[in-house]
Amino acid sequence: MNAATNKKQLRERILRLLREQHSDHQFAKNLHICHKFFILKEIQEARTIMFYASFDGEVDTFEMMKQAIQLGKKIALPRIVRDRNLMVPALVPLLNKLENGPFGIKQPHRDDPSIALDGLDAVVVPGVVFDRHNNRLGRGGGYYDRFMQSLPSCIPTIGLAFDFQIVDQIPSLEAHDIPVSVVLAN
Q: What is the pLDDT of residues 65-90, one digit of tens each?
């Protein structure tokens, strides 16, 4: 079995577990991860945080975004630019004004202003699988890999995961794979 097959099977297995988890367990784990998130020094000091719009069983970022707004923080979400194969962070003034983007993921409205990368104080990065060295395996599109390569290294990146999304080692990491600064799991 080759490395690509191993990654694909690992991704498919964890995605299935994400979709099948019991909602009561998921809710409790989300609360725990949210608590860990807001006690991070980097988050307490951050003025502008880029989140991802959770879907398909992922750790719920919408409650985190609501709490961040209540704390007076600005939030951003990625806007996918498919014809250029990249993501652009955009400020989100209202969570109820999001629109459906590519892949069925909510994203900022087309009129929401973009923000420069150096205007971000922290970035929350999705992942299907994380390993003990903070490496991540995404959904396979490479959008976050490309985004993280252009992100200034001084900006902390935070992965969010349920305990079953953590493995000892992700098979066959590649040169473009960039680990996150920290993974918060429960």
A: 999 999 999 999 999 998 898 999 99
